[in-house]
Every structure is written in C-alpha cells, then in structure tokens.
Amino acid sequence: MLRTTLLAAARSSTCRTLVERAPITRHLVSKYVAGSTLADALPPVARVTADRLVTLDHLGEDVADASQAEATVDAYTRLLAELGRSGLAERAEVSVKLSAVGQFLPHDGEKIALDNARRVCAAAAEAGTTVTLDMEDHTTVDSTLAVLAELRADFPWVGAVLQAYLHRTEADCRDFAGAGSRVRLCKGAYDEPASVAYRDKAEVDRSYVRCLRTLMAGEGYPMVATHDPRLVGIARTLADGCGRGPAGYEHQMLYGIRENEQRSIAAQGRRMRVYVPYGDQWYGYFMRRLAERPANVAFFARSLVSD
Ligand code: FAD
After folding, report:
1. Is it the case that residue 62 has pLDDT exceeding 50?
2. Highest taxon of the source (predicted)?
C-alpha cells in the first residue's frame, strides 16, 4: 500500500513540489545521488572505481519535448568524453533511460529515442566503454527491446535490463541468454498491475531465481542487480555451478546502498558494479528508492509534517 502510494507520488507534480522543498530532502537525496552536476559526480565516481566498477546515470525521464531529449544526449556526450579523457572509461559505463531521450514523444517517439540512443552509443564507442538501456514500466518493454535489437546491430555490446517481477521475463531471459548478450536482472521498481507482474515479494524472488538460472546457464553475460543477500548468495552458487569464473558475470548495486557489502564482494575478487546517478532531475529516482525502504519513508514523512 505504502509502496503503491509512493510510486504514484513519483509521477505527481504536486508531490514533487512538496518533496523538493522539504528541508530534509537534500540530506536524504545525497545518500542516493552523487551530485547535481558532472563535476560533483566525478570525485565519488573516482572513489568508487578504486575498487569497483561503475555505471553512470544522468538523471531524467519522461521528457516532454525534443529539446529536452537533445539536452539529455548532450549531457551523455559530455559525460562520455570526460570518461574517455580521464581514463575512467576503463571502469565506468553509462545507463540510459529511453524515456529521457524521447521514447514517449507524440510523433515518432520510438524512432527519436533510437536515433538519440545511437548517438550516445557512438560516443561510448569513441570513449571505449559500453551502454546499458534501463528498463521502465511494463508498457515500455516491447519498445525498449525493439530499440535494443536495432542498436545491437551496430553496437553488439549494448546491455538490456529485465525485471523479474514481470510474468513475461522468464521467456525474455531465454531469448536473451545467447552469446554476446549483456543482461542486467533486477526485481523491478515500478508499481505494476497483477495482470502483468507478481505482486508478492516471495513470488518475485522465486521468479528472480528462475530467471537467474536461465541467464547463468546461457552464453551471455549476466549482471546480477540486487542488494538482497539471499539472491546474491544464490547468484554465486549458480555461477560456480555453471563454471563461470569471476569474469563471467557481475554483481550490481545502487550508489549509497549496502556499501560495505559492495566492498566485500569486490575484495573477494568478484566483479562489483555500482549504479551512480547524478543530476538535478532526481525526483522520480529518489521516490522509487523511498518506496523500497519503509524505514526511510517513516523518517522522511515525520520531517515533512514537523516542518
Ligand atoms: P529488496 O528486497 O528490495 O532489498 C533487499 C535489501 O536491500 C533490503 O532489505 C535493504 O537492506 C536493501 N535495500 C534495497 N533497497 C533499498 C533502498 N532503497 N534503501 C536502502 N536499502 C535498500 N529497476 C527497474 O525497474 N529498472 C531498472 O533499469 C533498474 N536498474 C537497476 C540497476 C541496479 C544496478 C540495481 C541494483 C537496481 C536497479 N533497479 C531497476 C531497481 C530494482 O528493480 C529494485 O527496485 C531494487 O534493486 C530493490 O530490490 P532488491 O533486489 O535490492 O531487493
């Protein structure tokens, strides 16, 4: 119930104004977001890349016009040039939301997003790194996978995200378990109806394990995006059982969450990648993180009413 309310608030402009103005917000946001600008984000990225890998997200989603989509492409182009120039591209890639590059624009949105994503991929190739397409709500999955297929024709290293809470994802994992594919498996962060998604945590976890089995047994490169200690352990067992060495898959976690565990995984010689968001469009991302953690919500709600 609370999760549903917060995820609805993530799309409300009234709630957005209230949350953005709350004094406590800056403090909580800085736990999950590396800074408002690229210059702010670079020191944390350099710190994290000392022992872990990174995927950088320039925050923003659901752009309303072509000029905003163009601004997103510019931001990624500048980011990728900086990664190439500084040498960070060896340990840092980027994550892109297609809705931030025009997927929902009324005329030819998917084509605009494809063209824009292609420009981001070309900048990544130039810098010597890779791109992963984030996955948004279930209405975008077919479109995102169609764009992915087009991009992979020119840039075979482009990664996909699949969400274990969707009923369709086991079948998608079978389709994406082939040689050359890079798949980030996560539980899923949106409020989805029971007609398309498992809503019970135990069912989502069971689906996650089934999907993981398929990806680990396949020939692609699984990216295990979860902070759930049980699933992290199962991923290792499955990887070992499938004869994957430490270079045959990677763990992924979000900036600001379970950092000690991130360091410990890296110290064991396993690949650990941290998703590092930055930028001033943090509202939707922040609300999804609140929705995942009831303890944060109680703290945040108390500060809103006592203000
Ligand atoms: P949970 O059962 O939610 O959490 C397990 C434990 O992790 C919790 O008990 C807690 O200790 C800790 N934890 C989890 N969340 C938080 C939090 N917000 N604050 C503090 N502690 C927390 N979702 C998408 O829909 N599309 C994407 O493209 C996408 N990309 C992702 C990329 C990465 C690298 C990661 C790690 C996640 C991504 N997600 C994405 C989010 C994902 O779908 C989940 O919503 C999120 O990871 C929480 O699920 P969990 O697997 O960590 O398990």
Report:
1. yes
2. Bacteria
Q: Is the CB of 141 under 6 A from ligand 1?
A: no
Residue 230 is assigned to a ligand binding site: no
Structural tokens at position 187: 């539980």
287 in ligand 1 pocket by Cβ < 6 Å?
no
Model pTM? 0.95
Ligand-binding site membership of 216 (annotated): no
Does 184 participate in catalysis according to the annotation? Answer: yes
Note the pLDDT tens digit of each residue in 8-58: 878 777 777 777 777 667 778 899 999 999 999 999 999 999 999 999 999
Query: Is residue 134 among the annotated active site residues?
Result: yes
Instruction: Using the mean position of ligand 1's atoms as its centre, give its distance from the Cα of residue 257 in Å.
Output: 9
pLDDT tens-digit map of 207-222 = 999 999 999 999 999 9
What are the strands, taking DSSP E only, across 197-264?
221-225, 250-254
- The predicted structure's pLDDT at residue 94: 98
Neighbours of 168 (CB within 10 A): 14
The structural domains of the chain, ordered by start, are: 1-33+288-307 (no CATH), 38-281 (3.20.20.220)
pLDDT attached to residue 163: 98
- Pick the catalytic residue from 184, 270, 271, 273: 184
Tell me, letter by letter, the H, E, C secondary structure of 165-211.
CECCHHHHHHHCCCCCCEEEEECCCCCCCCCCECCCHHHHHHHHHHH
Beta strands (DSSP E) in the chain are: 53-58, 92-96, 131-133, 160-163, 182-186, 221-225, 250-254, 272-278
Task: Report the SS3 class of residue 221.
Answer: strand
Q: Is 140 near ligand 1, meaning CB less than 6 Å away?
A: no
Determine the average pLDDT of the residues in 87-115.
97
Q: For residue 307, name the pLDDT band (cuts at 50, 70, 90).
A: very low
Average pLDDT over residues 129-140: 98
Q: What is the ipTM of this complex?
A: 0.98
Q: Which of 57, 134, 137, 205 is catalytic?
A: 134
